[in-house]
Structures are given as C-alpha cells and as structure tokens.
Amino acid sequence: MEMTARLAHLDTKVDGRNCDGLVNHNGETTEIRVPLSHTGKRLGPIEGGNLYRLRDRKFLLEDKKRLCAWALGAALLGILLMVLHAELCPLVYQPESIYALSINGLISFSTGCLLILIIAFHYKDIRLFIIDHNQVDWRIAMTSNRVLGISLELVVCAIHPVAIYLRPDMGDRLAGEPEQNSSTPLCLSSSHKEVMLDVELLLSALMFLRLYLVHRAVLLHSKVLLSASYRSIGSLNNINFSFRFVLKVLMNKYPARTLLVFIMFFWLSAAWMLRLCERQQQVETGGMDTALWLIAITFLTVGYGDVYPHTSCGKLVCLFTGVMGVACTAMLVAVMTKKLALNKGEKHVHFFMMDIQISKRIRHAAANVLRECWLLHRTTHTKDNSGEHRHHQRCLLEAIRVTTKNTLERN
C-alpha cells in the first residue's frame, strides 16, 4: 500500500506539469528551465568556458602562423617576379609582348592574394583579441591604432608597378618595332614621359617594403612565443613578447649567424636597388658588380671615391646603406666583445691560476725580505763596508715594495 501511494504521488507530480513548463507542488508553481543547446554541442568561446577558449586560442594561433607564412610567400613571389621582369625586359622580350603583360599580371595577382591574406590574418588577430580579453563585440578591438596599422599594411602591400596598364600608346605601337634604349628600367621605353619612369622606378623599389612580414613570421614561428614556460615566466615579469624581445634572444644565442644573414641580404637588396636607379643613366654603377662594390664600401664607411651614385635615387640608397652600416658596425663590435670575453668556467680557471702565480710571487718576495734583512744585519757589524750596507738597504726596500704590491694585487 505504501509503494502504491508513492507511485501515485510521482504520477501526480508528472501530470502536474503544464504546457508552460511549470510544476505544481502542493499549490506552489515551480518553473522548469530547459537548456537551449543540446548535449555535446560546442558552445561559443564565451559561453563554453575556459576550456573552449584555450582550444580556440590554440587554433587561432596556428591559423595566424599559417596565414603569415603564406603572406610572406606571396610577398616574396611578387618581389621575385618584379626583379625577373626588370632583368629580362627588354633584353629578352619586348614591352609590347604577351610575356611582359603576363608577368605583370602575375605580379598583380600575387599582390591581390597578399592583400586577402593580410585581411584574413587581421581577422584572426581580432578574434584572438576577443578571446584573450573575454569580450563579445569585435568593435572593441578596432582601436584607432589597429585601424591605422591595418590600413598602412594594406597600402604597403598594394604597391607594385602598374605603368604597363596605364601606357597610353600601347595599342598604337607596332609589334615588330624594336626598342631603341635597352637600358630603361622595367620595360619602359624612352618615348614615355620621365614622370612615368620615375613612378615605375619608385613603385618597384617600394615593393621591398613588403619584407616587413619577415619580422612577423620570425615572431610567430619562434620557440619563445610558442613555449608555455616562456609565456608564464614572462607574464610574471611583465615582459611583452614582441619582435624586439625575440631579436634580443636571437642576438644572444646566435649573434654571428643573425648578423651575417642580415648583412648579406641587405647587401644584395641594396645593390640591386642601386643598379635599378643607376641603370637608366648609362653609368658604370648601373652594373651589378660595381653596385655591389659601392654598397660594400659605403656599408663599411670606407668610401674610396672611385665610384659614386649619379641619380637622386642612388644617392638615397647609398645614404641609407651608410646609416645601416654604422648601426651594424656597432652591433658587430658588441658581438666581438662578447665573443672574446671569458665565460664563467674560463674565468674560474684563469683566476685560479692567477691566484697561484701571485701566491708564488708573494712567497718569493717575502723570502727576499728575510734574506735582505739578514744580510743588512750582518753588514752592520762589519767595519769599512758602508757601500755594501747601503746596497742591502736598497734591496730590502725593493723587496718590501714588491711584497706589498703582490699582496694588494691578490686582495
């Protein structure tokens, strides 16, 4: 009978639930709340708790690293195509040929892919900011500095030679008519305006600004940023894990290798830019070998004066090379000083051996003091021997001086 009463009571509770999700208990109404999401369904980064946020953060960091690598590859591809086009045209093909238009089209296509990758990278960066700061609205992350930085990056990455699309006489030129001036930069003939030459030259040189992506790739692929230990200790010490910190770590671990790679890459880039600037003037600095020599002596702040730039663009390149040479020379001196300095073990061995040698000299000087004291005492009892007495006095004073010097040196 008791079991039957309990079952009846349970049935009453179940039947007492109305369609509004309310349950009646002895005249009292209790609201039943049903979760909106199904069991096992992934929630958002804010509603899902710290576990989901950490997982999303890991995925976003991997996506940022992958997008940065692709963006750097697209930037380098555009620069290589620009250099290839500048070297082959018009020596191999003519400005009106399909090859020139194809390579310029590839440069524009790589530039478009680069812009898309930059936008995708900053989209992932904004999502990562939202997760790190536990925010919901993405507009909170769009500060004025971030908007200015993204706009500046898009402008820098969009720069590429476009004069071939703007040539007014491209359709009027004959296909079989050869170019008269084979030294004009980037496939532009002498019939064009000088302003078009300068614009094409400037756009080609400014494409090297895309190499700012190198520091972002180094930062995202460094073990410093990926190591949880580094991040934990750095957060406790209020360290900002930026490219500056990563560069300091690389300069401390691999100073010679880092400087060598930077100097060689800078020499090649600056030499080609100088050749690009000087080639239109038909001067000796328009050759790659002479440009390399001029960049090297300018970078080392030697300046023999046998060759010098003739154009304003070439002078700016040499000026920037000299400034970078002074900075790299200072870093090289610091690296060589650190390399020549003794480490902890070498200092211990060196100071231990020096201490042994000083102890030997102190004992030898003390023995000389005792000997000269005895000889001086012996000469005091002899008559008509004043010269020998003064000699032993001088020797005693010298022995005392040497003993004092070695003792102070040891302390």
What does this structure look like?
This protein has 411 residues and is mainly alpha-helical. It contains 14 helices and two strands, in the order αββααααααααααααα. A two-stranded antiparallel ribbon has the order 1-2. α3 runs antiparallel to α4 and α11 packs across α12. 18% of the residues are buried. The N terminus is likely disordered.
Question: What is the topological layout?
Answer:
Layout: H1 2-15, E1 22-25, E2 28-31, H2 49-88, H3 98-132, H4 144-158, H5 194-206, H6 213-220, H7 223-226, H8 228-236, H9 243-253, H10 255-278, H11 288-299, H12 312-340, H13 344-379, H14 386-410
Antiparallel strand pairs: 1-2
Helix pairs in contact: 2-3, 2-6, 3-4, 9-10, 10-11, 10-12, 11-12, 13-14
Supply database-style keywords.
two-stranded antiparallel ribbon, mainly alpha, 411 residues, 67% helix, 2 strands
The assigned structural class equals: mainly alpha
Distance between the termini: 102 Å
Q: Whole-number average pLDDT?
A: 76
- Tell me about the largest β-sheet: 2 strands, antiparallel
Shape summary: elongated
Sequence of secondary-structure elements: HEEHHHHHHHHHHHHH
Question: How many extended strands?
Answer: 2
Helix percentage: 55-70%
| Count of DSSP-assigned helices | 14
- The unreliable regions are 1-25, 27-48, 170-185
